[in-house]
């Protein structure tokens, strides 16, 4: 991978929602009065007990919020503004309904059903959300805080300190180390012999010891580029990706099961593991590496192999701890979204934004609005397994093939669409934002460019390893 400096950016998707509120026309005063006198009491008295934020919404439906009615629950939209005949809410409260709602307590009277019908026919008006006068000023506050926060400062090339033993240092890294040694009145140790040197670099790059044949060949090679040849050989070995891909897998919380309460295995997690290893060995650019994992399923591809590889990359989002015992569906989904955002921001932004799930961050310049924006870009990630007939195996394969043939014959018009996670994924690797955990670790570790030149004095002269 490229060893450039990467500093990603936050996505402020929540601004779209604010703009939408601003565009909404103020509802008619008479219709609002009708809602407050007729509809709200009806919903509170007959529906809220089972379909509100105060309980686990039955069927996934909430009626205490207009968006909840429009989005609907498991059966679909409960209200279609202007179309009473298409609104499931009316069908479920009607006298002829097979399982009439509400299932407990008094059913709606003819007059109440007529009021609901009128309300939906008139557009299902709902009082607009009143934003406080201070709304938006927090953004200005956080922009000021970011100017002083160390994580948002632009990277600078530090000036190497002057040292007394200038001949010892081969590069600026050596000069920084030597300056610290001289400040403590310490002297560097003698140069490591060739056997120690090849052991160090082989362990560093592959995590394995060198073979006796490798050691013997390096000891006998007196050419100036002998060490560079060893490094290039190790960088080209499959073990390099296994060793250094492990660093990303740790950051990506790689595991092959769901974790805590019920430890259900992820049977195909190894595909994501191999994707990471192959990407490291192929020296995939960092920005592409991140983009594929955050939104690979939304990115364009030139062939099926590339499309499949990019979909496997999104295993980064699908893995992680999942509370599969959580019976509250909305809570389960939002906990997963929170876990995904935490994984992305920790690894790519180097920030712990999960504190801002419920309120503005108390220490870092991260407002809750930013996290809500990321939620809007992430909450459409689904973990549903493909439908299967337990007895006969996968179902619907023939129909799927027929659909694909039909689509191939009538491909339609190409439309450029920026959806969900794709725009934030691209912004995550811009150089204007904080470097993430993985990028920082890689900068502190071995870089590929180190294979083209001689080892630094620090590498040659530090104490031999075991």
TrEMBL record:
Low complexity bias locations: 454-466
Keyword Iron tagged: yes
Superkingdom of this protein's organism: Bacteria
Region Disordered, residue ranges: 416-466
PROSITE patterns in the cross-refs: CYTC
Biased composition (Basic residues): 440-450
Keywords: Heme, Iron, Metal-binding
Record bears the keyword Nucleotide-binding: no
InterPro entries in the cross-refs: Cyt_c-like_dom, Cyt_c-like_dom_sf, Cyt_c_Planctomycete-type, DUF1549
GO molecular function: electron transfer activity; heme binding; metal ion binding
Protein name: Cytochrome c domain-containing protein
């Amino acid at each position: 991978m490229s060893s450039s400096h990467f500093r990603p950016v936050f996505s402020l998707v929540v601004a779209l929602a604010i703009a939408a509120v601003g565009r909404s026309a103020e509802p008619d005063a008479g219709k609002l009065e009708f809602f407050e006198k007729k509809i709200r009491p009806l919903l509170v008295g007959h529906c809220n007990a089972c379909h509100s934020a105060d309980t686990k919404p039955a069927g996934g439906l909430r009626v205490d919020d207009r968006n909840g009615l429009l989005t609907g629950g498991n059966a679909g939209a409960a209200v279609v503004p202007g179309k009473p005949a298409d609104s499931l809410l009316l069908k479920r409260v009607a006298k002829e309904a097979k399982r009439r709602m509400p299932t407990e307590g008094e059913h709606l009277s003819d007059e109440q059903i007529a009021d609901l019908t009128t309300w939906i026919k008139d557009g299902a008006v709902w009082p607009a959300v009143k934003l406080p006068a201070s709304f938006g000023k927090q953004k200005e506050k956080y922009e000021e805080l970011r100017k002083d926060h160390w994580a948002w400062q632009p990277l600078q090339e530090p000036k190497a300190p002057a040292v007394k033993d200038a001949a010892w240092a081969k590069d600026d890294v050596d000069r920084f180390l030597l300056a610290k040694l001289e400040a403590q009145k310490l002297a560097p140790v003698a140069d490591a012999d060739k056997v120690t040197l090849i052991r160090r670099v082989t362990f560093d790059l592959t995590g394995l010891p060198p073979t006796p044949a490798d050691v013997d060949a390096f000891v006998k090679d007196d050419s100036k580029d002998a060490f560079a040849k060893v490094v290039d050989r190790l960088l080209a070995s499959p073990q390099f990706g296994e060793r250094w891909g492990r660093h990303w897998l740790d950051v990506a919380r790689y595991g092959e099961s769901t974790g805590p309460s019920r430890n259900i295995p992820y049977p195909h997690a190894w595909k994501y593991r191999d994707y990471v290893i192959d990407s490291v060995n192929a020296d995939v650019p960092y920005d592409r590496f991140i983009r594929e994992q955050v939104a690979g399923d939304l990115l364009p591809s030139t062939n099926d192999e590339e499309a499949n590889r990019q979909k496997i990359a999104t295993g980064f989002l699908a893995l992680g701890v999942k509370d599969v015992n959580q019976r509250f569906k909305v809570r389960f989904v939002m906990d997963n979204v929170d876990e995904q955002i935490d994984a992305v921001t920790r690894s790519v932004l180097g920030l712990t934004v999960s504190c801002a799930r419920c309120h503005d961050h108390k220490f870092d310049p991260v407002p809750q609005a930013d996290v809500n924006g990321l939620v809007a870009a992430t909450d459409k990630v689904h973990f549903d397994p493909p439908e299967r007939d337990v007895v006969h195996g996968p179902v619907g394969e023939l129909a799927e093939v027929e659909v694909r043939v039909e689509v191939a014959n009538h491909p339609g018009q190409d439309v450029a669409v920026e959806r969900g996670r794709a725009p934030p994924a691209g912004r995550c690797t811009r150089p204007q934002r904080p470097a993430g955990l993985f990028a920082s670790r890689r900068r502190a570790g071995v870089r590929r460019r180190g294979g083209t030149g001689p080892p630094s004095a620090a590498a040659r002269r530090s104490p031999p390893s075991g």
